[in-house]
Amino acid sequence: MRITFGKYLTKLATKNKKIVLLTGDLGHGVFEELAKTVGERYINAGVAEHNMSTVAAGMAYTGMMSWIYSAAPFVTIKVLEEVRNDITYHNANVKIVGLGGGFDYGMLGPSHHVLQDISMLMSLPNIKIYAPAVAEDMIPIMDRMVKHSGPDYLRLTKAENIPINFPAFKAVRNLAKGNKITVIVLGSIIKDVVAGILPVLKLNKIDLWVVCEMPFKIEQKLIESINRTKNLCVIEEHVKTGGLGEFISHSVVSSRLSIKRFTHLFATGYKTHHYGYRDFYLKENGLDQDSIKKTVTKLI
């Protein structure tokens, strides 16, 4: 996703002279062409994310469209005060791009993981949040961000091929039809979900949905799916509090939908305090392909 981001931002910045990128000393191998193309509108702010966020806000106040880029925890958790006070409260046109959502940074450990970003940002005013499912989502999402004259957050992860057809980008998309259970997935962990349940998908038992934008309005077809199956499962590489699961459960209650079973698979943290790659952390949290397969299969 980061390669697509760098290439497309270069294209956007070539046309729109108000676009400026500030990076927290990340993006080597990604932004060389951008730096060459836009000159002084590319700024390496160094490992100084607090300063970078406030500078980006100041530029936005003057009419620029500021994009800030760093590891996801460093432009969300680390700088939450600046994001709140300088960006979202002022509805400033700042685009926050966080690399390595969820457990994506693997062996670098908890300091580089981000499991609370969406919940924190959802509590702030004016901001839109994007969690692409696949690399092909990047261009339509970035087009939306450019059109939105206000703060946005883009949660980037490693992109992988997924062996099912994806419809054109929407905030919420239906990927497979089924009548036994409605499964709603946040962003790129859809690749692990599909890999786990692919054989079952072909049996038309799982109504599979992916969410890539928050907050969002639950569309009628999703409401019909929940009413039909009355069996709802939400999966996200994020903590329970303030994420997709709570958003969906609140929407279900407020819409007075009747369901018989609600299951929520989410990140629970670091049980063994050991280090490992992303797959290790997913397994530890019951979010790996095998665990998802077992859970969803039991729910059908």
From TrEMBL:
SMART domains documented for this protein: Transket_pyr
Domain annotation Transketolase-like pyrimidine-binding: ranges: 1-164
Listed name of the protein: Transketolase-like pyrimidine-binding domain-containing protein
Superkingdom assignment: Bacteria
Pfam families with a match to the protein in the record: Transket_pyr
InterPro entries: PDH/Transketolase, THDP-binding, Transketo_C/PFOR_II, Transketolase-like_Pyr-bd
Lineage, top ranks: Bacteria, Candidatus Roizmaniibacteriota
